[in-house]
Amino acid sequence: MTGTTSRAPERARRLQNVDALRGFALFGILAVNIWAFADPYYASTETNPGFDSGIDHAVRFVVSLLFETKFYLLFSFLFGYSFTLQMAAAERAGRGFVPRMLRRQGGLLAIGLLHGAALYYGEILSTYALLGLVLVACRNISPATALRLGAMLIVASSAVWMLLGVAQLAVGDVTGSSASDAVGKLSAFQGDATATLAFHSGHLPDTLAALWLLQGPSAMAMFFFGFAAGRLRVFADPERYRDVMKRILVFGLPVGLIGAATYALAAAYAPGGGLETVAFGFGQLTAPALTATYVVAALLLFRTAFGRRVETAVAPMGKAALTNYLVQSLLLGVLFTGYGLGLVDRLPPLAVVAVVPVVFLVQMAASRLWLRGHPYGPAEWVLRAVTLAEVPPWRSPRTVPTRTDRRYRRDSEE
Asked: Which residues form the DUF418 domain (predicted)?
């Protein structure tokens, strides 16, 4: 197979650092997604008129600076990395990879669409499911080719957005003035469960189309970057890439922060117009550098005594990442929409931020408790059953494992 190394396949073992990075990504995704539930003006052409202090705007600036457009890239990168683990698992099991992966992507698409229609219209799983088919088609490319394709996608998509922003500025569209759907969203989320469900399902098609334009190219690029890292087994032996990681820190941090600050300023103070579009394009160009910095910083942290404890604590979140992503939407729905308390637009930004670690810590504890008696999260179990076209074990075996149980354990990288 093109791009493979001459080494024998590594021993089948779950990479705890990959799970911990998934858990870290879930924290960042929660820190971004919560605003789609708590603030009806989020991602619109208007600034929330209720933000009446410098602290309110500063909070939104920090979220845009450190979290927005960074953590879905990390999740995308890890999706690409896990794709190579799926390839290795299929090879060890002696099964055809393509049918297996097509079933997996089909299952992910179904879960994503149900999630989007019922819980969060801005879901990204269905995008991942369809973009993953591109990775299936490109499964034989070399790591170098994957890196080139990813870089080309980042540069091309960023250039398009910046040119689009320049065109907006040329016709005087500086900060945006079109009406948003904030009033409709506020009414739906403060209404009953039926109103909330209607809003999610009604906005899903348009939102998915927007996400394909906004996030599709960069997500695909990160798929390719993660695929290259997986073929090189970067997380299986990170020490081997220490010099590369140092260069990423030196280069990626300043470049990523400059782009992130540019985007954050425009998103917080000039939303909806040409300035934000140009800044978004520039941010898309530099965001992978900041995301790479986050990855390297986490890997270096995991090498310390304190970091190993952090890795162990967060890894269960990542092992049940799909379940936790869905549960995040459910919990935020109960807090902020007609499914529960209806707190949309009622909490100040600082209070919204304070909800994030509380939800995350609850999920950490629940994940750890669940995985004591179960090999997979509930959503992972469903997706695994679809992928393998078999019923995997629901509970962790407490006796001598059967041949079937041993095979499922060997097949548990993803």
From this structure: 229-388
**Residue type for position 55:** I
Model pTM? Answer: 0.89
* Cβ atoms < 10 Å from Cβ of 399: 6
Helix ranges (H only) for 138-233 are 143-170, 182-189, 193-214, 216-231
Q: Could you please report the per-residue DSSP string of 5-60?
A: -SSPPPP----HHHHHHHHHHHHHHHHHHHHHHH-TTTTSSS--TT--SHHHHHHH
* Tokens encoding 257: 């922060």
Each as own residue / partner, the long-range contacts of residues 395-399 (CB below 8 Å, 24 or more positions apart, any chain) are 396/372
Rounded CA separation 322/53 (Å): 37
- What's the token pair of residue 246? 């140092």
- Residue 209's nearest CA partner among 77, 283, 116 is 116
Q: Which of 179, 115, 396, 169 is nearest to 278 (CA)?
A: 169
Q: How far apart are CA 215 and CA 211, in angstroms?
A: 5
- What span, in angstroms and rounded, lies between the C-alpha atoms of 138 and 224? 9
Q: Could you report the per-residue pLDDT of 196-207, keeping only the tens digit for each? A: 999 999 999 988
In contact, 161 and 280? CB cutoff 8 Å: yes
pLDDT tens digits, one per residue of 221-251: 999 999 999 999 999 989 899 899 999 999 9
Domain ranges of the chain: 19-145+180-231+289-408
Angle (CA) 102 382 105, round 5°: 20
Cα–Cα distance, 380 to 321 (Å, whole number): 8
